[in-house]
Every structure is written in structure tokens, then in C-alpha cells.
Write a structure and sequence with these properties.
Elements (H helix, E strand, L loop, with lengths): L1 H16 L6 E5 L6 H17 L3 E5 L6 H8 L7 E6 H10 L10 E11 L1 E5 L7 H10 L5 E4 L5 H13 L4 E4 L3 H10 L5 E3 L9 E6 L24 E9 L4 H15 L2 H9 L4 E4 L1 H22 L6
Parallel strand pairs: 1-2, 1-3, 6-7
Antiparallel strand pairs: 3-10, 4-10, 4-11, 5-8, 5-9
Helix pairs in contact: 2-9, 4-10
Keywords: Signal
Protein name: Tripartite-type tricarboxylate transporter, receptor component TctC
InterPro entries: BUG, Bug_dom1
Length: about 300
Amino acid sequence: MRRAIAALFALLLAPLAARAQAPTVIVVNFGPGAANDIAARLVAQEFQAEFGSPFVVKNTAGAAGTLGAQEVVRARPDGLTLLLSPIGPIAVQPSYMRNAGYRTSDLAPVCMLTDAALVIQTPKTSGLRTIDDLIARAKSQGGNMPYGSSGPGTITHLAMVAWTRAAGVPMTHVPFRGPSEVILAFQQGTLAVLADQPAMVRAHDLQVLAAFSPERLPEFPDVPTLGETGHDLAFSIWQGLFAPAATPEPILARYEAACARAARSEALRQGLERIQVPLVHRGRADFAAIVVRDAERMRTMIEEGGLRAAE
């Protein structure tokens, strides 16, 4: 019996030993410079030191993050392909899209790494300084004022849908494929507002108008919450590590332990701090519960609000 158990564990852990021959791929489902791309590169450095073998980051962007998620769902569950994703492709798109190509349950949560409230941000050249400024300008443009997002059905999209409806201010949704496109649109003056986590604020000297959070954010103490402006809305973007659902338990446990050690790394904390995204670590059980909770919340919001994509 002992020999049989040892043989089984050797078989399950063989992919981990195989890293000496093949790098582990961390798929990022948004473009270079996105918050999960930066987080993945920081985690890859930690894991590379932990396992003593190469970890590479692969950007598979498109379709609001679902292309990268599909890639990992279809990958062999051998521990050599992981996904670092924000909430949208995991908890939103399977309900928002009529055929996302996978379900939330097709991915196994390994650990949560960050959680950041969305903030409504704008270039300082836009002239917008408060939510009242934004409301006035949007009303003056009769629904034609655009707001950006990281894709249809993402949290950055749904949060603005919720706010524009609550404030009674129609605006026009314009999706972008990544941060570089958003910044270019800001610079060209074709876009003035985006609700997203604050990863770009410091790097591009943006103005923050309000936060989708229950309380004021420590990094923006002078910025009001939307509740303070009369619209009690809270949305945040967590990021976490996932594996294909059929990945064996010993492999998931090994990665969960590696996540916990990485979360204690000063390099990871400082790297995330530079993009104003707080390190918030949760293990597998807690993270899985959060994923289930948020998937149900988003499904209810989408169905009750008639927000499902028309495809």
C-alpha cells in the first residue's frame, strides 16, 4: 500500500519535476502593462526562485480576457499552465457572454493576490475635477460622452453602467484592449474618463474623481467615495492565480503554499505598491468562496439589469 501511495504521488508531482525541461507558463489575459500583467511578472520572479526553474508570462489578450481564460481551461492540468486573471473573465464573462466557452467552475482558484477598488480617473488636461464636473459635461453632450473600459462585460464596464444609471447620466461605452490604448486616447483627447483600479494613476499623473469603495481609500484620502456623492456603489477588482479545474490536489497545494510565501515577499509588495494596487492574499478555500460569491452577484446584476451581451 505504501508503495502504491508513493507511486501515485510521484505520478502527480512528475509535472513539477518536469520544469527542468519545460518552463511553466503564467497566462495573462490582458495586454502588456495591465495590472495583472505586472502582477504576473512579479509572481513569476518569486516562483522562479521558489521552484528553481523558469516561469514565463504569456499575454493572451482579447474578448475581455476570455481568450486567455479559454487557453488555460483547455490546457493539460499538469501544473505547467496557470492563469493570472482579474475578476471579470472569471466571475462576470461566463454570465455576460452568451458563449464564453467555459464556466467559472472550469478553473481552480489557487490564491488571491490583490484587491483594489475601482476609481473614476481622468487626465488632468480634461478639466474635470469632481463628479459634478463629469455629470455636467456628460449631460451637456446628450449621452455622447464616451467612457472607456477594458472590454464589454468587464467590471470596469459594469461599474460605469451602474453609475450612469444611478446618476441618470447616459454615456457611451468604448472598450479598449489595454492600458496603452486608453492612455493614447487620453492624450489625443478622444476619451476623458475611465473607471478602473488605480494602476495607471501615478504613472500617468491622472486625476481621480471618486472611488467605488465603502470608505475613502488611504492612497487617495481627499477623493470622495461615490456614496459621499449620493450614489452608494462599490466595485473592486481582485486578481488571482488559477489552474485548470482537473489539476491534481498535490499540485494545487504546492502552488498555494508558494503563493503564501510570495505574499510575504517585500519585492512583491513594493512592486504592487508602485502601481497602487494593494497586496491582499487569500488562500484557496477563502478565495474559492469569494469567486463563487462574486460570480453569483454578477450573474444576478447582469440578469436583473438586462445587461447580457447581444451576440
